[in-house]
């Protein structure tokens, strides 16, 4: 197998010790990269570039793990003792239940795990490689040895690379070396003995580029990479759990313990005080234990969680860390980027200002057909030297490219740079020719921390030019002069600032472009080269309209008591204009990064609540804002895309990374990834988060009274010294199991309650079960007990056999649960309406199924023998339904009281 060959240590050359030319030669590749056909051949030879997956637990182990549970231990011991007492049938049923329980758990857990695996698969990273001389984006698994890979800050290195070019490249190699301080990289070859952590000319698979741009040649892929060899990065195994689930598991363990003590006490009481035999009392205590322990609850909660995660993925919110599902329901503030999240990120140049005049540009999208208008009159763009100079500047100082594909124009690279190219083509510039005539020798890449980009070019006479484009204030402060029809003149700063304000006030993002001659034969570009002395060529105003869905989603959030804040790198005026189009609450004031720097924490904390627009901020400001917002006691969700956003994303309660435009570094730091980069998906995820939490609570609220009712029935029978118990242990097991797989499961599919998004967010410190809910669990348990006991006694009193009376008791209990299931659909809202009774198809299906099971339980010979049941008449059923329906009305009237009290509290 080829993969095995590459992982043989002795066959791997010391790539770091070879010169770049020798590396290219050894791997038979030119500086233009591989041909696509050759790449495909190598892919079939070397196999896909992925790490061997962590071995999943074998099905057998997974199955056996189902038995590792306190309740199951209790049941097994009970089964063994029951068998020793020669109650073969009961023992058989107990073991059957244990087995069925394990099978159900096994299947459900498998489904939940598959769902999560599918969601993880949606996050597979990409790589940018040169194939056939062009830069393409491919799936990282398709990268092969010899591929030339482009790296930029935020990327995760897709394979082991020998660097051929490195411009300010810094890489964080914690995944490999454990060292979290980024290492500066270069291209010079090193001594053979250089240790891994010091190999500065190498970039290793799985590490993160935190700064700069570079190119490397792939020397090893998949299992052949360093990380593959130490196999340290076996896919993170996610625990199917959240804080609430852990809390409930803990609660479950205490409950089990308490129940065992209670069972032991009742054994002693029954044996010593009520004169039951030890064997009888043992069976009764087992009955009590199985009645009281909510065995179905953990499985139902896991399933509810998995369904929630799947629903979120269906709505473009991919959860990376499960606890976020719960946190989402408590979010009180969402801090969102502007560009691409609240706006469409489909940019078009709308205005260009030169020193002489302001021009408008027609046309939309990437179609490079449009007209330049001066005071609404079309002009010949090529006849305007100032305009052409500005357009040449933004064309050269640009990393995007355009391509006509099947009659449609496509842009590769960022939408803003694409829009600038489109404007140049509209003016009749041949962008490709220009790039050939003025080749680029070096660049300072754009970073949101310095907010500009600069490139160095030379012409055929080796004259060099530096172009700078970026945020206007950053470019303006580096300019000494401006280009005018009469040549370069000293800069009129005030006039340019006014031009910029007018463009920004219309919601346009403004960009300035400037030029400066370079030194003769200059080949490197440094920050100090662009610090001063630039000549301003013009300003570009780019339109990026808000997303319709974002406007609607912001409204939904506001109704749900969630404050939306815009935190953008863009200019304050532009940000305020867009904020008011989107409908943020406060759009009068915007705090800029500079203002944030002058405020101390106490002052900013006072303002952070009421100010909704933050402009020209850097990632460090984002981190500070998250911290201060959290200190006010709110749960904060924060979006981000760049590598520098990682600390703020990690700090936020829910870090949200962009799936399309986000870097790998941002994705790794976040809890959730948006598949469509759309703000509306965050609002949807919050809604799903609230739903999941509600459904988890509904499951608890539904299941616990069932166990409470059953336990009270058994306890009552022991206390009163009944000869025959109303429910046998196996009947109790039947009820618990059959209702868990039907009724309780249906609650996991419960859609959001009406009005859920007009409630304020839940307080994260609130306990899962409020006093109201504990009270409800208590009184519903009592109703179930009284009804079941009552009908059992009545039946006995009328002279029925014990089998008949027990069948009445079991069916009463089940019928109570059916009615109570409808109550449990809404925690406080009324259900006695069309939507409440018929709104969830799963509930109706579950009820139908359960009724079939009960008919079999009551009338089918084999089950009658197994469970000791007897056929019932229609009259009995009528009575059962009448009695059991009481719970529906009693709980509904209690809910009504809760609602009235709440309304009074709100008005009073
Ligand atoms: P948001 O944070 O909402 O996504 P943003 O995309 O405007 O907003 P940044 O990417 O930090 O934030 O950009 C800040 C500013 O830097 C922009 O307003 C623009 O003026 C300038 N800028 C952005 N991209 C480039 C680029 N490729 N070249 C030069 N300047 C740029």
TrEMBL record:
Record has Magnesium as a keyword: yes
CDD domains xrefs: P-type_ATPase_cation
Keywords: ATP-binding, Magnesium, Membrane, Nucleotide-binding, Phosphoprotein, Translocase, Transmembrane, Transmembrane helix
Pfam family, any one: Cation_ATPase
Residues passing through the membrane, by range: 60-81, 87-107, 254-273, 285-309, 699-720, 732-749, 769-793, 805-822, 842-860, 866-891
Domain Cation-transporting P-type ATPase N-terminal: 14-87
GO cellular component, one term: endomembrane system
Highest taxon of source: Bacteria
Membrane association type: Multi-pass membrane protein
Subcellular localization, as worded in the UniProt entry: Endomembrane system
GO MF, one annotated term: P-type ion transporter activity
Keyword presence, tRNA-binding: no
Alphabetized NCBIfam families for the sequence: ATPase_P-type
Annotated family: Belongs to the cation transport ATPase (P-type) (TC 3.A.3) family. Type IIA subfamily.
Protein name: Carbonate dehydratase
Organism field: Lamprobacter modestohalophilus
């Amino acid at each position: 197998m080829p993969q095995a060959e590459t992982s043989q240590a002795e066959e791997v050359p010391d790539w770091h010790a070879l010169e770049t030319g020798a590396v290219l030669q050894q791997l038979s590749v030119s500086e233009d990269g591989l041909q696509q056909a050759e790449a495909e051949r190598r892919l079939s030879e070397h196999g896909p570039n992925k790490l061997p997956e962590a071995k999943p637990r074998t099905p057998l182990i997974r199955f056996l793990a189902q038995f590792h549970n306190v309740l199951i231990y209790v049941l097994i011991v009970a089964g063994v003792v029951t068998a020793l007492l020669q109650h073969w049938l009961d023992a058989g049923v107990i073991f059957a239940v244990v087995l069925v329980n394990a099978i159900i758990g096994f299947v459900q857990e498998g489904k939940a795990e598959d769902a999560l695996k599918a969601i993880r698969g949606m996050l597979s990273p990409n790589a940018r490689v040169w194939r056939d001389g062009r830069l393409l984006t491919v799936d990282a698994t398709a990268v092969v040895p010899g591929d030339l890979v482009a790296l930029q800050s935020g990327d995760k290195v897709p394979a082991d690379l020998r660097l051929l070019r490195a411009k300010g490249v810094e890489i964080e190699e914690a995944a490999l070396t454990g060292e979290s301080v980024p290492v500066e990289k270069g291209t010079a070859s090193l001594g053979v003995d250089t240790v891994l952590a010091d190999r500065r000319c190498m970039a290793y698979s799985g590490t993160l580029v935190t700064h700069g741009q570079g190119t490397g040649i792939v020397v090893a892929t998949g299992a052949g990479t360093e990380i593959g060899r130490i196999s340290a990065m076996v896919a993170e195994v996610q625990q199917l759990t959240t804080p609430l689930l852990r809390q409930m598991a803990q609660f479950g363990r205490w409950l089990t313990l308490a129940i065992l003590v209670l069972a032991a006490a009742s054994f002693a009481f029954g044996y010593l005080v009520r004169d039951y035999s030890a064997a009888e009392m043992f069976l009764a205590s087992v009955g009590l234990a199985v009645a009281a322990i909510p065995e179905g609850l953990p499985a139902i909660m896991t399933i509810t969680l998995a369904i929630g995660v799947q629903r979120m993925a269906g709505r473009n919110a991919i959860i990376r860390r499960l606890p976020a599902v719960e946190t989402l329901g408590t979010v009180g503030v969402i801090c969102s980027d502007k560009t691409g999240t609240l706006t469409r990120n489909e940019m078009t140049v709308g205005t260009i200002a030169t020193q002489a005049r302001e021009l408008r540009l027609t046309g939309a999208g990437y179609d490079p057909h449009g007209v330049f208008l001066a005071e609404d009159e079309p002009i010949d763009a090529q006849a305007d030297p100032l305009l052409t100079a500005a357009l040449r500047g933004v064309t050269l100082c640009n990393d995007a490219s355009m391509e006509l594909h099947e009659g449609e124009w496509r842009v590769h690279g960022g939408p803003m740079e694409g829009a600038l190219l489109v404007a140049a083509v509209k003016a009749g510039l041949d962008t490709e020719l220009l790039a050939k005539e003025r080749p680029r020798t070096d660049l300072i890449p754009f970073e949101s921390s310095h907010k500009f980009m600069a490139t160095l070019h030379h012409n055929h006479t080796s004259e060099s030019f530096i172009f700078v484009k970026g945020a206007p204030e950053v470019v303006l402060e580096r300019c000494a002069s401006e280009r005018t029809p009469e040549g370069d003149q000293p800069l009129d700063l005030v006039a340019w600032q006014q031009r910029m304000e007018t463009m920004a006030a219309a919601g346009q993002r403004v960009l300035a472009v400037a030029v400066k001659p370079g030194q003769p034969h200059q080949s490197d570009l440094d920050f100090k080269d662009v610090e001063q002395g630039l000549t301003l060529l013009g300003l570009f105003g780019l339109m990026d309209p808000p997303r319709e869905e974002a406007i609607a989603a912001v409204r939904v959030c506001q109704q749900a008591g969630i404050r939306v804040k815009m935190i953008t790198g863009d200019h304050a005026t532009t940000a305020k204009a867009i904020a008011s189009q989107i409908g943020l609450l406060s759009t009068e004031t915007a705090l800029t990064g500079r203002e944030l720097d002058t405020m101390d924490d106490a002052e900013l904390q006072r303002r952070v609540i009421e100010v909704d627009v933050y402009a020209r901020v850097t990632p460090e400001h984002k981190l500070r804002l998250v911290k201060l917002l959290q200190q006010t006691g709110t749960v904060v969700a924060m979006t981000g895309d760049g590598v520098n956003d990682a600390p703020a994303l990690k700090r936020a309660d829910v870090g949200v990374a962009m799936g399309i435009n986000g870097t790998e570094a941002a994705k790794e730091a976040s809890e959730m990834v948006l598949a469509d980069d759309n703000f509306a998906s965050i609002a949807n995820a919050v809604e799903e988060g609230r739903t999941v939490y509600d459904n988890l609570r509904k499951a608890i609220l539904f299941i616990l009274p069932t166990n409470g009712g059953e336990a009270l029935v058994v306890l009552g029978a022991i206390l009163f010294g009944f000869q025959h118990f109303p429910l046998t242990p196996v009947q109790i097991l039947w009820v618990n199991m059959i209702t868990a797989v039907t009724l309780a499961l249906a609650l996991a599919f419960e859609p959001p309650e009406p009005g859920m998004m007009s409630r304020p967010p839940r307080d994260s410190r609130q306990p899962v079960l409020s006093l109201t809910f504990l009270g409800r669990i208590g009184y519903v348990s009592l109703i179930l007990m009284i009804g079941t006991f009552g009908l059992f006694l009545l039946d006995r009193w009328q002279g029925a056999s014990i089998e008949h009376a027990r069948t009445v008791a079991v069916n009463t209990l089940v019928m109570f649960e059916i009615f109570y299931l409808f109550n449990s659909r809404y925690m406080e809202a009324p259900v006695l309406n069309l939507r409440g009774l018929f709104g969830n198809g799963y509930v109706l299906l579950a009820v139908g199924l359960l009724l079939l099971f009960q008919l079999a339980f009551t009338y089918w010979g084999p089950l009658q023998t197994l469970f000791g049941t007897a056929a019932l008449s229609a009259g009995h059923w009528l009575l059962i339904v009448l009695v059991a329906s009481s719970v529906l009305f009693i709980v509904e009237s209690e809910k009504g009281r809760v609602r009235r009290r709440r309304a009074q509290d709100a008005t009073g």
